[in-house]
């Protein structure tokens, strides 16, 4: 496939050199079957690792490099069609942004102040941040924020406090802890969607618990870790709302999860607490120095293209498909759980490691999960369940024979 993104007569041709791509495009599961990629032997078949080491004193040829990249694309195609365990959205088309990859864009420093490095995309970044500020209900002059390298960097702006059990806070225990530590302020890192089980903490209940124990808004700080669910809940009916109007201090999400940014990135928005914080915010408010200038443009493009309605449809489809998988597993008598506002289906870890690897399942202890993202179709889920049953049967037969 050849993509000429900029007509050669265009006045900006020197600014945006033509990018030619002869890469295999992303395949559908049907197309993948058609070109017959053998997923079971992917290591030997498509990944010419042998040619990857950089050992030459002289540069390699374009032809060799193109063939290595083509091989790598075949590998990626096979994996992304069975990527069930991790919450990355693989459905996107950013071809229109390819010309921007000819530039190093760097957003070092505060996006609202800009910097003397003029090849930056802070104008796009500010638009993305304003969109999130509006979503989470905070006025423009009340916060500082920036596009991060991912959910984790956003979480570093909060402080972790011990919570109970696996994810969701047990508010009865929280109450007891608050009574025991009544003399100190409470700093809470609240999971809005736990990683493994997709348990959504009830923000309203946590705030109510704090208030009942006499913790007024100046005596608590809540950071919301909404890596995946922070951008899903606003589009699900009756789901708990994240809003700065409720008195939270900060929110972080990942940009490569629901929003489908090809580069790992995220958003953090932090309510300005005092003059001192404002003072720091007016200088370098970020953790990293150099920051990816392409990420805010990918985020901006993705959100602008889909709009609220597009995002809502995608989130609802993920939730419906997760419910479908949940039912299919239960019908097949495989114990599975699915939290109410969640797209994460949890079940007992399959015994065969080849199976978990083949479907890219994330496992912890004796449980595994499927995160139903936008690229996960009913067809994929059907073939997953079929194989799950087949492999479970053959593993148990092997165990019996021993
Ligand atoms: C609750 C939660 N927080 C943080 C992260 C990490 O996010 P990132 O990969 O963007 O650093 C994840 C990743 O799945 C997550 O589920």
TrEMBL record:
Q: Does the keyword Lyase apply?
A: yes
What's the name of the protein?
Answer: Histidine decarboxylase
What Gene Ontology molecular function terms does this protein carry? carboxy-lyase activity
Origin, by domain of life?
Eukaryota
Query: What is the organism lineage in this UniProt record?
Result: Eukaryota, Viridiplantae, Streptophyta, Embryophyta, Tracheophyta
Organism this protein belongs to: Flemingia macrophylla
Give the cofactors, semicolon-separated.
Answer: pyridoxal 5'-phosphate
N6-(pyridoxal phosphate)lysine is found on 257
* Family, as annotated: Belongs to the group II decarboxylase family.
